[in-house]
Amino acid sequence: MPQLPKKLTQDHHKYSSVRTKVLFTIAWKNLTAKKLRSLLTIFGVVIGIGAIFFLLSFGLGLQKLVTDQVIGDQSIKSIDVSSPNSKLIRLDEKVVNDIKQFNHVEKVGVQYSFPGSLRHSGAEIDSVVYGIDVPYQEMTSLNLAAGRLLNGEDFNSILVNTSTLETLGIKENKKALNKGLTIVIPLQGASKKADKIQKTFKIVGVIDSGSGTEVFMPKDNFAVAGVSAFKNVKIIADNADNVTLIRKQVESRGLETTSPVDTLDQINEIFKFFTIILISFGSIGMIVSILGMFNTLTISLLERTREIGLMIALGGRNKDMRKLFVLEAVLISFIGALTGIGLAIIAGKIVTFFMNRFAAGRGVHDHFEMFSSPLWAIASLTAFTVLIGLLVVYAPARRAQKINPIDALRRE
Asked: At what angle do helices 260-303 and 35-71 cross, to 10 degrees?
């Protein structure tokens, strides 16, 4: 049997490499030539990646939903300051002025808080009365239901919440506007000037702030009555990264601080493990898809040994054969990842739709999203899938690169 020239085995590496576009076309035709096998392999990737992304987006969506419910309208740049012992460490005007001088402090608001009683048309109820300034009001994000909020010129005006009106027997929010409400606030031990505040205020606004009875009035009413210690001080930092620094400065004075960042960190810590558990369940399908991809690429290599040998004999280089299999793996991974993620997003939208319908049937009319599909998650999971494909194709690609064209062409 005549021997093939040694030049085929010795000098084929000297030829210029096959263009990537040509290899890509060959890889695509190889996949479409075996439609059923390629579809089953891609379907395995779709199931694996789809399951992972579905559970990941569910974990992220649930985390966002819980965070929004717990944090609410509070800014993560806010800090609440209180005194652990108001008799020893007073949270007074001097302390507030010092806090305003701290670096990175953007805004400071103050609040008084006392139990009191409300009187209207012969009815009397107990309530919590807050004395606030305009900056505190702005940082609290009161949900206005009717009327207006307090301004810097108000003194005898108040805000009441809807629960207060219901308890007083006022059914419509707008009907309460401009009505007089007598408030009695005992100040024993808190003021040296007066033992109580008893005064009739005009309702200028109604807010929706929960089930308890609450009244908000300008803080100057407490200052005039001689109350010097605030119950709470709220700070807004110029940047969320500076919250920790400001808290350390405040706490060095013996005061206590709390921030939504604390709650946010706890939520993130809990959901970090929850998301890992969800992804672990989804990874079971990914393992099956990896085995299917490896099997497809290995069988493809065995079926096309002579074809590869001929391509090398005609001038293709060994690394071109490796690149060919790498492109096939990338195509399978990329198509499977995008399809799986797309189907997972659609499935999430369907589940969210039916859950909102279910909640609406039970009186919950606020729309909520149970799934979150951020771009970073889509990009990361797609890149991860392609990386898995490259790892899976490593062995078949190396075998394709090492094929001897003479041995390959001798095969029947």
From this structure: 180
Query: How many C-beta atoms lie closer than 10 Å to residue 236's C-beta?
Result: 18
pTM of the entire predicted model: 0.61
393: CB partners within 8 A, 6+ apart: 293, 297, 325, 326, 328, 329
For 369-402, letters b (16+ CB in 10 Å) and e give bbbbbeeeebeebbeebbebbeebbbebbebbbe
Q: What are phi and psi of 152, to 5 degrees?
A: -65, -15
Neighbours of 274 (CB within 10 A): 14
Beta partners for 181?
A: 201
Question: If residue 174 lies in a helix (H) or strand (E), which one and from where to where?
Answer: helix 173-176
Nearest to 38 by CA among 400, 309, 299: 299
As a whole number of angstroms, the distance between CA 72 and CA 208 comes to 14
Tokens of 21: 């576009």
The kind and range of the H/E element at 114 are strand 105-120
Instruction: Tell me which residue of 286, 237, 263 sits closest to 104, measured CA to CA.
Output: 237
For the chain, what's the residue count?
412
Please check whether residue 145 is in contact with residue 207, taking contact to mean a CB–CB distance below 8 angstroms.
yes
Mean pLDDT by 10 residues, the chain (412 residues): 47 58 79 81 86 88 78 75 82 91 92 93 90 91 89 92 89 89 90 88 89 91 91 91 91 89 81 82 78 76 65 65 79 90 93 87 77 90 87 73 59 50
How far does the chain reach from its first CA to its final CA, in angstroms? 15
Residues sharing a CB contact under 8 Å with residue 369, sequence separation 6 or more, in sequence order:
61, 64, 65, 352
Paired sense of beta strands 180-186 and 144-147, if any: unpaired
pLDDT of residue 307: 65
Q: Tell me, what DSSP letter sits at residue 155?
A: S
Tokens 């993620």, residue?
341
